[in-house]
Amino acid sequence: MFFGRGREFLIPSLAHRFIAEMVDFFILFFIKATIILSIMHLSGIKDISKFAMHYIIEEIDEDTSMEDLQKMMIVALIYRLLVCFYEIICIWGAGGATPGKFLLGLQVVTCETSVLIAPSRVLVIPSSNVSMTTSTVRALIKNFSIASFFPAFITLLFFQHNRTAYDIVAGTIVVRRNGVR
């Protein structure tokens, strides 16, 4: 095997990956809330509490009508597409990192092969920037697996080097941004 094309990286801990996801979740939740509240304001809806519970928090109770459920599904789909767009642009166009990953020093790079060199150190081949197509595949699998109640991120507990199923399918890996120190 020819290792000249690869680069050494540190594998981030599960805690770092989780915190990065939480940062991104809160950023996206704030964006979602802002968009929904703007739509409410522009459309003249006055009952903010009911609307917020249905469309921001997505709470369903016995008083939720079929029409409300349909609207909630549309909002949820639009939100999933927004999240995909956010991840595609960040991973492809912003150096391989969403804001959460960037703040924690993480990056997504291409990975055909990863070889363990030392504990938490891997040689990643080819370790290049992620293309738009690869970023799109990764984002769609990640976000629509969550929407279908199969959290694909849990698979990082079972694959080598904390890779998830969507990383393996897309040919990517999450690493510490600065490589090996």
UniProtKB/TrEMBL annotation:
<keyword id="KW-0472">Membrane</keyword>
<feature type="transmembrane region" description="Helical">
    <location>
        <begin position="139"/>
        <end position="159"/>
    </location>
</feature>
<dbReference type="Pfam" id="PF06271">
    <property type="entry name" value="RDD"/>
</dbReference>
<dbReference type="GO" id="GO:0016020">
    <property type="term" value="C:membrane"/>
</dbReference>
<feature type="transmembrane region" description="Helical">
    <location>
        <begin position="74"/>
        <end position="94"/>
    </location>
</feature>
<dbReference type="InterPro" id="IPR010432">
    <property type="entry name" value="RDD"/>
</dbReference>
<keyword id="KW-0812">Transmembrane</keyword>
<protein>
    <recommendedName>
        <fullName>RDD domain-containing protein</fullName>
    </recommendedName>
</protein>
<dbReference type="InterPro" id="IPR039871">
    <property type="entry name" value="FAM8A1"/>
</dbReference>
<keyword id="KW-1133">Transmembrane helix</keyword>
<feature type="transmembrane region" description="Helical">
    <location>
        <begin position="25"/>
        <end position="45"/>
    </location>
</feature>
<feature type="domain" description="RDD">
    <location>
        <begin position="12"/>
        <end position="171"/>
    </location>
</feature>
